């Protein structure tokens, strides 16, 4: 069994006496007390601005930002969607206009590249432009490509068969020159035109020979197909 010895009154009195003597000795020598070895906070004036600073010997002063108050807390009964992250904004597709899209029949087409118009549409526009009764177009061999408007009872194919040898002879003499032909009480103005690799024949049926500026407009319409 270990015995614990308690401090008696005489022991306490002795400790007080030793402490008093040490204090008298320090005051008699006049030596200042050594500074503490730990870091102390610097004092700040009443007009100091900014966050408090901690001076650390041998290092740069680092400001301490004041703590920000916490944001509003969602109640525990908030719905699940309240905790979901915000949805990202949709990103536009810069190549959308260049990507081929599928048609209903399964074929594809490049947007911005329309198909050339049909010959029937072009000849209808030529007939309106020239205020003509009819317009026809023959290929390089004299075959009928397309016709528009009203033609004599004999039919447009009979007119085309008689027209081809006449226009070929005239084109050898004056390439591209117009040939006016009488067809009943109407005038048929015919000439040859280069469309792509082929040389085609154009004929416009009207009440009078076709003027030069109108013929140029008809040629521009036909070039839409080339």
**Which strand-content bin applies to the residues?**
15-25%
Radius of gyration of CA atoms, rounded to a whole number: 54 Å
Q: Which structural category fits the helices and strands?
A: alpha+beta
Major sheet, described briefly?
Answer: 5 strands, antiparallel
CATH fold descriptor of the domain at 132-225: Beta-Lactamase
According to CATH, what is the class of the domain at 132-225? Alpha Beta
Helix content: 25-40%
How many strands in all? Answer: 7
What's the CATH H-level homologous superfamily of the domain at 132-225?
Dynein light chain 2a, cytoplasmic
Strand order of the largest sheet: 4-3-7-6-5
Q: What is the mean predicted local confidence, pLDDT? A: 74
Second rung of CATH, namely the architecture of the domain at 132-225: 2-Layer Sandwich
Distance between the termini: 122 Å
Compressed to H and E, one letter per element, the order equals HEEHEEHEEEH
Which term fits the overall shape?
A: rod-shaped
Number of alpha- plus pi-helical segments: 4
Low-confidence stretches: 38-42, 97-101
Explained architecture:
The N and C termini lie far apart (122 Å). The protein is 27% helix and 17% strand. The protein is of the alpha+beta class and 226 residues long. The model is unreliable at 38-42 and 97-101 (pLDDT under 50). It has a domain at 132-225: 2-Layer Sandwich (Beta-Lactamase). A hairpin with a 2-residue loop joins β5 (179-183) and β6 (186-195). Strands 4-3-7-6-5 form a 5-stranded antiparallel β-sheet, sandwiched between helices. The chain has helices at residues 9-29, 119-130, 156-173, 212-222; strands spanning 101-102, 108-109, 134-138, 144-149, 179-183, 186-195, 198-206. The chain has 4 helices and 7 strands; from the N terminus they run αββαββαβββα.
